[in-house]
Structures are given as C-alpha cells and as structure tokens.
Description:
Blueprint: E1 8-13, E2 16-21, E3 28-34, E4 39-40, E5 44-46, E6 57-63, E7 66-71, E8 76-81, H1 82-86, E9 95-98, E10 106-109, E11 114-118, E12 125-131, E13 136-143, H2 153-159, E14 162-166, E15 172-177, E16 182-187, E17 193-197, E18 207-209, E19 212-214, E20 223-228, E21 232-237, E22 250-257, E23 262-272, E24 276-277, E25 283-287, E26 294-298
Antiparallel strand pairs: 1-2, 2-3, 3-4, 3-5, 6-7, 7-8, 8-9, 10-11, 11-12, 12-13, 14-15, 15-16, 16-17, 18-19, 20-21, 21-22, 22-23, 24-25, 25-26
Amino acid sequence: MYIWISSTYIIPIDSTLIIGSYTSSQKKYLQNYSLSTNKFSNPYLSKGRGPSEIIYMANISLYDNYLGINDARGKKIVILDKNNAILGNSESELITYSFKKNQFYFAILTDDLQCITTGNGTSKFKIQIIDLQTGEIIRDLGKLKSNPNDMPTHIIAQAGLTYPLLKPTRDKLALAYYHTDIIEIFDLNTEKSTSLQGPETFNSDFRIYNNNWLPNDKTKFAFVSGTKTNKYIYLLYSGKNANDKKWNQGNYIFVFDWNLNPIKKIILDKEVSQISISEDDKTLYSFDEYTGYIIQTTINY
C-alpha cells in the first residue's frame, strides 16, 4: 500500500483539541491542547507493535464517548474513552479490534459496534461497513467503475483515494477526492450518490511502477483535508502538483451543505495542512506542524 495522506488530525471536544500527528521522529501519536489554558499536554499513545501501541496512525474519529484510531499498517482500530484521552491516559481501558487481512486508509467509528471504511485495496467498492467484533465486512457501497485495462484493484483504490467525512447524523458520507477535484455524497440509507467536480476540473493522473501507484509529472492534489458539522462540509483545497514540497497544504476552504450546494469560499492568510471546525460552525482550527502553534479562524456567514 502506497500511503500518502494527511499526517495530522484535530478533534475538538468541549474546550480541548485532540491532535493526532504522525512524523517519523516522534514516539507517541496523540497530544491535547487546552483552549482554556492555551497549553499542550504530554504526548500519549505510543508508536510500536505492542498490544497498546500503533504502527501507523492513518486517521482518528470520534463517536459518542469513544475515540477511534485507525492503524492502517497494523490492520486494526484502537478504541479509547474520550475522557481518558482528554486526561492523556492511553493505557486505561484501551480496546483493539482487528480488521483481519483488510487494510484501510480511513476507518470512522459509526457506533460502538461498527465502523465505516474507505481505501480498501482489495475491494471493488468504495465504502465498507465493518463489524468490529468479528472484523468482517458486512456491507459494501459504491461499486467502482469498470476498468477496461484490467488495472489492479489496489491501483484503482490509490488513484481514487478519498477523504471521507461522516455526517454527525450518520445518514450521509462525503467523499472528497485527493487526486481529482470531485466531491461525492452517499446517502447511506438509499445507497445513492450525487457528485460535483471543481474548481479546476482535473482527473487523476499517475504512473504504475512495480505494480504500485506512483505520482507522475501531471499528478495533482485536490482536497487534502476536511471537517464537517450537521449543517456544512468544509474542504481544504491544495491544487498543487505532486512535485511541490507543500502538496498537502492549501489556504482555500470550500464550504458545501450536505446537498452539495456551495455555501462559501474561505481564503486563509496562511497555508495549512488540516482543518477542524467547532460544532456551531463559528471557529475553524488548524495546527502548524512547523511552529507548533494552534491556528484559530472565526467564520462569519
């Protein structure tokens, strides 16, 4: 699996930001930032192959009182009580569910028994629903388009890699594509989808080497991060070529409602690589990996 996705995630919980970050030098994945004291906690959740450790944190998600950490290389999801996470304690009541042989770019908790996943390199579908207790795929959605060149499924999965955002009501899933500027909304009840392309309208371009997906001179990045509320979807747009060292950064945020109606275009005065939003749609958060600063932006509608 050629992993090339955002390395930082932010989840606001009351007055705390839980920051999940991956760099090759760090030994722990999670850290908290208090919005009331403006201080960081000590890092927690160790990197490694042990029972209470993560090999590669691909993404984090929140359901009710539980924080889910997707270990893409470990083929598992680790569940941590959010109150223990706020306290910076990753050893207490840590639960691990195996995905067996399946490897997913993204895994999002939908309740305490299931998660929704994307980026499975062996599936002919875009989305899978996983039973956590068995690790089995119990539902597939969004069949991939036919491939006249018999391209391997894992290549198609990488070329069509998406940033998934689950609506808090859990009835819709937004897929924002990395390598083409397409946004797709799935109704999880009817299994029907609608899509929109822009702002530049370009397709996924790549090369295959040794049976692996690799970028070429024309490979571009579209939506590199996103966040959501019950009202809106917020997508961070890059538009950069894969050769650009800052391919995963952007300062344009496109806002849509859950029917894909354009609502607003936000232009930041600084490029960022990830975004998160408060529940009331008023405050946008980001984390500057180079300076270690938290960035807050007030949104006016």
